[in-house]
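Final report, closing paragraph on structural work. Over the funding period we assembled a curated collection of sequence-structure pairs, and we close with a single example.
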Amino acid sequence: MKKYPISLLILLLTLSTYANANWLTSLEDAQKMALASNKLVLVDFWATWCGPCKRMDSESWNQEDVQALMQNYVPVKIDIDRNRSIAQKYGVQGIPYIFILDGNGKILYQQMSYKRKTEVINLLKKYALKTDFLSSDLINFYKKETFASAFRLGIKYQDFSLYLGDSIKNDFLGVAEKYFDDARSFLKASDLKNKSLFEQKLDLFEIQEYLILQKPEKALKKLEKMNANTIHKSNKSFFDFLRYVSYLELEDDKNIMELQNEMSEADKKKAKLFIKSL
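Its predicted structure, as stored:
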């Protein structure tokens, strides 16, 4: 896939072909625009012969209040007859099929069905987020898919999820998992030294997901299986941080006090993001 300097991506909007006044028709261009504008990609898989798709156009997509919400996204219509490989990649076997993707094509939301206008409005409001926080790491992964770029983006998605409501938190954590899976694959194929250190660090981030989801018992169970004596030196502070957050969520004052002095002020501040009651 040909890649362009990020400073030129904004020009693609005027160069792309539109299905109508609001939609791009190239997923590749839509992803580049999303990276350039810190937006998510709204994808509508459709076909010219699809009756429900045409109904959604007239009853939902073309309505003024819906189009106003679409400004929060980079919208793209994908004709499944002309783009069979893309439809196959995303497992599209029926239409209309709506997706919300990040700028690298990772799936945040997907559902196959006709949607009434109210359902479309609720969906667009739900995911109307700016991705500035993720921007540099999204672009780095787009430019070069490596262990480092995938790993950093997985971390960023986890951190981002801490600030999100419960209705979409799981979706962003799911994307973090996908980038961590990519990181594991790249790590396995790489010639990096200390692979075991990074594998362990990935395991720790998997445990952190349990804490973000308010499941401290599961987190502690996993941490206990990782004998403290086997923790790499550079992972020790993260390991202790996860134990500390687990005890905070469980309100285990004794263990909190034992670890509190080992926590930096930055760690204590971050720990509060995990605890809804703090």
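Confidence is low (pLDDT under 50) at residues 7-21. The longest strand covers residues 40-46. We thank the funder for supporting this effort.
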